[in-house]
Design a protein that fits this description.
167 residues; alpha/beta; GMP Synthetase, Chain A, domain 3; 2 domains; 4-stranded mixed β-sheet; 3-stranded mixed β-sheet; 5 helices; binds zinc ion
């Protein structure tokens, strides 16, 4: 039995919740994704607020369950996960570390800013191949391995890869 007393604090609960990963892209934590919005702690009770990424992404349910499991294991008796849809999540919330991890994982991170993509003129940014770095790529299918990703093909190294869509 541990003699250490767990200090329940917002920082502690945030760290625990932030360790939960995206079931679809296990290298990304919900903090990397910008999905983790808020953590409140009141004694043994933790309230976590998350904003789901793409609506209809089944990963959200799994993330919610994982947050509850992680905080329960860390000693919180009551864990509540709230989902907030406003403001809506955009790929702009993904952290720099998240973008880097995606590339290392072989997925092209969202290209450009959602705020630009949603403007009156829709800019199509070139998607960089995560393997060789070439910008000579094309979309093969708008829905890749999951609805959140599009399937691309690199004309330089001929490798197919997933591109995390800009939202
Ligand atoms: Zn390539």
């Amino acid at each position: 039995m541990s003699t250490q007393t767990v200090v329940h604090s917002r920082e502690h609960a945030w760290r625990v919740a932030a360790s939960v990963t995206d079931p679809e892209v296990p290298v990304l934590t919900i903090e990397d994704l910008g999905v983790l919005r808020d953590v409140k702690v009141d004694g043994d009770r933790a309230v976590v607020t998350i904003t789901p990424t793409y609506s209809g992404c089944p990963a959200v349910e799994a993330m919610r369950d994982d947050v509850i499991l992680a905080l329960t294991a860390a000693g919180y008796d009551t864990v509540e996960v709230r989902t907030t849809l406003s403001p809506a999540w955009t790929t702009d919330w993904m952290t720099v570390a998240g973008n880097r991890k995606l590339t290392e994982y072989g997925i092209a991170p969202p290209s450009g800013r959602a705020s630009v993509a949603q403007g009156p003129i829709r800019l199509r940014m070139a998607v960089k191949c995560p393997r060789c770095g070439s910008l000579d790529t094309r979309e093969v299918a708008h829905f890749g391995s999951t609805s959140c990703k599009a399937l691309y093909e690199c004309r330089a190294c001929l490798e197919p890869f997933d591109h995390f869509k800009v939202l």
